[in-house]
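Table 4 source record.
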Amino acid sequence: MDYCRQYGVGKPHYNLRILASRKNGASSAPMLSRTWGLAGFTSNSKAGTFLSKANGINLGANLIWIILKFALPDVIIKAHKNNGTDGVFSTTFHELGHASHFKKVGSRYWIKYINYIITYGTFNKVKVPYGDGHGKNAGTCALGEAWANYFGYTLTLKEFGANNRIISPSGFENFDPVKRPNNNSINPIRGGWEGWIPAGIMLDITDSNRDLVRTGYYDNVSGYSTKNIFDALDSGVESPQAFRDRLLRENSNRDSNDIKELFKAYYWE
């Protein structure tokens, strides 16, 4: 199925280099074949740091050299059999969501994303490697992860419905925003998830449910589409606030006050 055409999302590069591993752990979209040698990945040690923090891959210098010389993967997928079809599907489309975003914004943008993880990330299997949200380019990371989580989970529910182990419709809806700085970047909790990355905000923008986001703040936004979301993920849009402003500008300021209140609810005002 052509999900990109169905949802109005730009396709990734046709010649992506995808490294699939049968091991457990996190996946990532470093886009190495297109970012190597730029301001972020300028040495084997920096690449090793990123792979460790983003994927939990701890390699010796020789193996890192081999990966960089012969593979330069754009997307790394961890596909252990215990993850199941639904888990591998969700992870794959999360990372392909990143790849579509990359094609639109380019290498210079992506390097800021990568450098944030290299500089501030800490590998933690529970709370993932995105730091506490205080550092330079934290907004770029927050926006990129919000998009990829939204896209991956949307397609998982589209493909599997509620019959999956990854996300339920109610769990997708139930996101608790956390104020930065906080080491809780994205964390599943009972019946939902939470974090300083506004991973639930794009669903709130596109759905028609009026639900409580946090005390004093409701989601009153409706009428936007996934295409509207992706259209606003332009080069130069490097934070949730910049995304908000671009989204409003491209859609005649529809629900402007409600959109601004929603971003305030997620602590990105």
